[in-house]
Amino acid sequence: MKMKNILIGVSCALSLQLAAPASTNGGTPDLFAVRVGSAETITQGTIPHAVILIEHGKIVMIGQDLEIERGVPVFDRPDWVAIPGFVNCYSRAGMSSRGSSGTTPSVMASTELYPTEPIYSDLLDLGVTTLGLYPPGNGIPGQAVAIRTRGDSAAEMILDDGVYLKMLMRSNASSKKMIRAAFGKADKHGEDVEKAREKWEKDVEKWEKDEKKRKDKEKKDKEDGKAVADKDDEDKGPGDFVEPTPDGTASAFLGLRRKNLSAMISIRKAGDYLHLVDALGKEDFDWCLRVPLRTDIDLYEVKDQLGADNRKVILEPRLTLMAWTMRERNIPDELSGAGANVVFVPNGDDLESHKMWRFHVGHVVKRGMDYQAALRGMTLGPAEVLGLDERLGSLDAGKDANILFFSGDPLEAASQLEMVMIDGNFVSDEVVR
Question: pTM of this prediction?
Fold first, then answer.
């Protein structure tokens, strides 16, 4: 049904129980609306008395007190608060293999994905609709995969593969050498391509000269009445230029330079960041930082540099202490205030850490972090890390209808997750406490 036909003024909308409407597949209707007390859109702020129109798994429109055409099912929940589904962009949930130290950027985490792992449905019940699963190991262990937490097969679950290249950086010469050597392989491939092209161009030039001689001879033979070779026996020439195939390392780092691939670079302290900047030099590609928060973390030392670049920084929603003191620091708040794009991940990959994730974020907010920036850190920010922000992370027209419905403020411990929607389908009728 077209939007111009849907948004017709009506005096009353059809309020239904969640299990009542029928659809072509016997589940959630293909076209319906949800009316809630408010919606945290992430991009448009808070919309009170929000109505969300959904069709075939996509948000068609969202706004305050929208009027819906008679006959379109409306789920009326005036006490609910709607927000986008949570996105954990850095996880090993459901995976168990061990990696090694070294440079293996062609390794894909997607090969480890087992859809039957029960943790995925458990995470969906907690509101985690999307995961970024990274490969194990140190050095440059490979590329991550983005999945939805529902599906019967890997193909159904995978949203995108090769969403970022995982790298680890330390304040030592070997880490710098590792990164520079990898980019060096990309440079070497570029040199190999140029050499191959030069050889191909010479082969083409030689073939054209030989072809001219052949045609001149053929013309003369015809004039002299001599037999002429069939055209099927003609030399077709070198053909089109075919670029040499790069090895796994060169391919990945060429992908970084061409911005077909981004990188998530893990550091432990401010010094690692300074060494990283030195190692990268003038290399221009998309990258974000993963920084595990520890009690003695000194990341605040480089917050201005991170803020100036609007760098995405992936960390836990955790308060730390200043070195040698009992003074609390809210590093997520400090980074966000400086202009960095803070992205939150749970304190661990287990189910309990995911269950407590929003409460931990709420604690950081109570200690000073901006509320909207914190919500963004669980939704749109991680979707950007995965390169899926055109589909996920906010309640906007055209995006996937991955929506969570809470009884109140989602960052308040007293609020309960009442309902989960993924791809426009209600998937849980249990209250998550």
Answer: 0.87
